[in-house]
Amino acid sequence: MKVLQQALVIGTCVTLALFGLGYVAAGQGAETLSYWLYWQAYVLFRLLPCSIVIARGEFLCESMTAAKVTFYSGIPVGIVIYSSLAYLILRARQRRLAAQPPA
Description:
Elements: H1 2-27, H2 31-37, H3 39-46, E1 53-55, E2 58-59, H4 64-99
Antiparallel strand pairs: 1-2
């Protein structure tokens, strides 16, 4: 259970740090860097089906509401992805340490 909690903390910290850095980069005009740092929201936005019309002449991928939802949905997606990665790394490290003979 301790490894899972550590992984969640690491995943949350990494996600929020990259979110903040991406926000600062976008504010400084480095849009491409911002997309790279906060890639989850960009991928989610690209997955929106643009062929669905939600209002007269407005497609789903052009909607500000959909853009905001996908932007902020990147945070929990990032936490899950980075926490999973941290969990795998912590478990591999734990197994490697357990396999070593005591000194």
